[in-house]
Amino acid sequence: FAGSRAEDAPAASASATATPTPSASATAGNTGTVPSKAIADGATWTGTLTLNKDVRLGIELDGKAAPQAASVEIDLIRKQFYEGTTCHRLADSADFRFLQCGSANGDGTGDAGFQYGPLENVPSDGRYAEGTLAIARGASPYSQSTQFFIVYGDTTLDGSTGGYTVVGKVTSGLDDLEREITSKGIASAGSD
């Protein structure tokens, strides 16, 4: 990851059906030292996510619609947490297409020592459009940490457990992602 605040870029906005941004008191379930949501400063942040050393995705993080999640991602990027990590999960069915990354151990385990919530900017219909960047989590809405997923084909996920925070989007490079990575699968992991 590399990037910076997009000074002149218009901020992306949540859809009319997205969940509202939680109040400060809603963070009582956080564990560890969660980066301040003020880092994202309500701004749009742009950058590049590089996979396999040569697949470059243009990305945009939405600090207005998902201030806590965007702040966490910005903080992790600044600390170079993602350097050398791998993507460990590939879902490749016709209506369920995403690549999950950000695990410290490369196998879906390991994080930065904190978990946070609640969920932000969740599509109420469970539809995650191609190009969505969302935060992975466990069963609890306060289990978000370092893992994220890149939706490379329109995907519908079960929203009965709360859904997933949409933190931003891919602005370029999805064709390269599919041609160079998702069409080939990933080593040492299965696909859904």
CATH topology tier name: Cyclophilin
Radius of gyration: 15 Å
The chain-level mean pLDDT equals 87
Number of domains: 1
Q: Helical proportion?
A: 10-25%
CATH class: Mainly Beta
Order of helices and strands: EEEHEEEEEEEH
The profile of the biggest β sheet is: 8 strands, antiparallel
Please give the count of helices: 2
Overall body shape: globular
Please give the number of β-strands: 10
Region (Disordered): 1-37
InterPro entries: Cyclophilin-like_dom_sf, Cyclophilin-type_PPIase_dom, E_coli_cyclophilin_A-like
GO molecular function, one term: peptidyl-prolyl cis-trans isomerase activity
Keywords: Isomerase, Rotamase
Descriptive overview:
- It is a single chain.
- The protein is mainly beta and 192 residues long.
- The protein has one domain: Cyclophilin (Beta Barrel), CATH 2.40.100.10.
- The model is unreliable at 8-17 (pLDDT under 50).
- Strand 2 and strand 3 (55-62) form a beta hairpin.
- The chain starts with a strand and ends in a 10-residue tail after the last helix.
- It has helices at 67-78, 174-182, and strands at residues 2-5, 44-51, 55-62, 86-93, 96-103, 127-128, 132-135, 148-153, 155-156, 166-172.
Describe how the helices and strands are arranged.
Layout: E1 2-5, E2 44-51, E3 55-62, H1 67-78, E4 86-93, E5 96-103, E6 127-128, E7 132-135, E8 148-153, E9 155-156, E10 166-172, H2 174-182
Antiparallel strand pairs: 1-2, 2-3, 3-10, 4-5, 5-8, 6-9, 7-8, 7-10
